[in-house]
Amino acid sequence: MNPILTRRQFTKAIGGLAAACAMPLAAKTRAATVAATDAQGNAAKRAFPRGFVWGTATAAYQVEGATGADGRGESIWDVYAHTPGKVVDGSNADVADDDYHRYPEDIALMHALGVGAYRFSVAWPRIFPDGAGRPDAKGVDYYKRLVDALHAAGIEPYCTLYHWDLPEALQRKGGWQNRDTAKAFADYAGYMAGQLDGRVSHFMTMNEISTFIGNGYGSTAMAPGLGLKGQALQQARHHALLGHGLAVQAIRTATNAKTRVGSAEGIDAPMPAFDAPEHVAAARKAAVEENAGYLTAMHTGRYTDLYLETLGAAAPKFTAEEMRIIGSKTDFQGLNIYTGNYYIAADNERGYEAVPFPASYPRMQSSWIQFAPDALYWGPKLMAEALGIGAIYITENGTSSTAAPDAEGRVLDIDRVMFLRQYLGELQRGIADGAPVRGYFLWSLLDNFEWSRGYSERFGITWVDFATQKRTPKLSSRFYRDVIARNAI
């Protein structure tokens, strides 16, 4: 290309510049007004609904520490983490973030963020050290102080009653393999919800049945690390579902009519490979069948025919009454979404086929988190459509990062900022297209004990120096604070 202008081109360019410079002031003002209006319109398109709930989340065993304080009983995770070789860095959660003692400091962090809600979990062994029997008053009082402090800071508490820390005393009796554990959980859930009635308006029965059964009972990757197969595994899963249903009923009995009850379940969000109608329909079918042992059963009160046929002799034994209890009506569904699976239409009995991730597909630090922002578009949308769910909260979303303090003490986790920006953008788009999402809880407020990964993976938007317990908000914390303040991306 010749960069030299001809005389004619030069004259035309100068004439255009002169015309622009001679534009009347009123015309310039009108042009500026149109540009500003367009910018406001574009911003409005990226805004979240008025009253959208912005929160952050933690789990008791991952942050509290103080495992021997005030009468707390032993949990299956205490036993597992102290077993050599179970946690990759040889660590445990005896201290973790010491949130049991430092929760006022962490509430101050949340207040500075501007969050309106905090999802936390109650440690079952703090309430019933042996899983059942006489409650421990010190444990109950701790959570009352916590929620009162949250209210004082203008933060609404959202309470999860079981986030994987089963009392070891119950595990010695079979844990979730024992049907009695479902009843013990319902008794605990009803009691604790009653104690917090009037202080907490949103309760979640359990967190990710699919994970604590699949990884704790179906493999050795998490506590209690049993590695069950076949019918024994499926019966444990069924008992956990039964515990959820019984707990829903117990919470309703123990609390006022305004209390909202749900659960938080982890899914690999169903996504069409691209949004051709046949692939969208395939992903919608996958939403039902790939969650048949969990969310589908909880929202329909039945196991699908295909699911039972696939299990064959490994299918759990159950009664019609148990399925009715499992299908107890809930008020909302929490979805923990980090990634998803892509589907295409297929000529098979399922009507869909999963598309495998090639080695070149981008991932975050945690190898199981494939970078899939559209999971927050399609996941809530298709789950709501397929199962008739009327209200959804994203109860977990986030990523680990290797970003560490630089010479100035800053943690510039731009990878997490990128992740959140893209995922939240897709969530907003999904809500604009009808997904009934009422709020979002970022995982997590703090770097913490990441289960069998120990302290090797940091999911927090706040850096924690575990030697000194010093908290340092990361770049992602500043990003999230800005999103909350604008209620928009």
TrEMBL record:
SUPFAM superfamilies referenced in this protein's UniProt entry, alphabetically: (Trans)glycosidases (SSF51445)
Catalytic activity: Hydrolysis of terminal, non-reducing beta-D-glucosyl residues with release of beta-D-glucose
UniProt-recorded Gene Ontology molecular function terms: beta-glucosidase activity
Keyword annotations: Carbohydrate metabolism, Cellulose degradation, Glycosidase, Hydrolase, Polysaccharide degradation, Signal
Signal peptide boundaries: 1-31
EC number: 3.2.1.21
InterPro entries tied to this protein: GH (IPR017853), GH_1_N_CS (IPR033132), Glyco_hydro_1 (IPR001360), Glyco_hydro_1_beta-glucosidase (IPR017736), TAT_signal (IPR006311)
Top-level taxon in the UniProt lineage: Bacteria
Similarity comment: Belongs to the glycosyl hydrolase 1 family.
Protein name: Beta-glucosidase
Species per Swiss-Prot/TrEMBL record: Rhodanobacter geophilus
